[in-house]
């Protein structure tokens, strides 16, 4: 491993240590992490999974992702917004997902907030994806080592505040920065990683 934290794989490509060994994480890093997500449903899924990840490893969430999609109607905001107390109990009995009642309730709450945002008539809101993308910074970080990767930004703080104002839960500044990394709003791929600059945004 280099001083930067990059590991060159057997394919000759440099990746951060977290994405270098586990095949699931490696595939996620190579094909999905940091690539632009611009659909409402796609953004709602990422927002939901980031909330469930709080306090857990991303690998845990990624392994449970198919079960999450099945349990939450493929993260269709309209469908999840219509979930009832019966669905909450169904979810709490589903061993395939993270059975945390606060996070389950937050997901239902956030689905309703997503639908409300869409129909608010406020030109600032539009849909969830457009709203979150509106907090993109003018510049992206250029970390050369793991230690240089930020965990929050002025934009993630502002986004968290704006989402909370619109009724969203589990949307703190650190979680929102992780979301911004995951969906391509910022590029925190290490300088030297084969994925650096691959999103087409930066």
UniProtKB/TrEMBL annotation:
Enzyme class at the top of the EC tree: hydrolase
One Pfam family cited in the UniProt record for this chain: Adenine_glyco
Gene3D superfamilies listed in its UniProt record: Hypothetical protein, domain 2 (1.10.340.30)
GO process annotations (BP): base-excision repair
Keyword tRNA-binding: no
GO molecular function: DNA-3-methyladenine glycosylase activity; metal ion binding
Annotated EC: 3.2.2.20
Protein name: DNA-3-methyladenine glycosylase I
Species of origin: Corynebacterium variabile
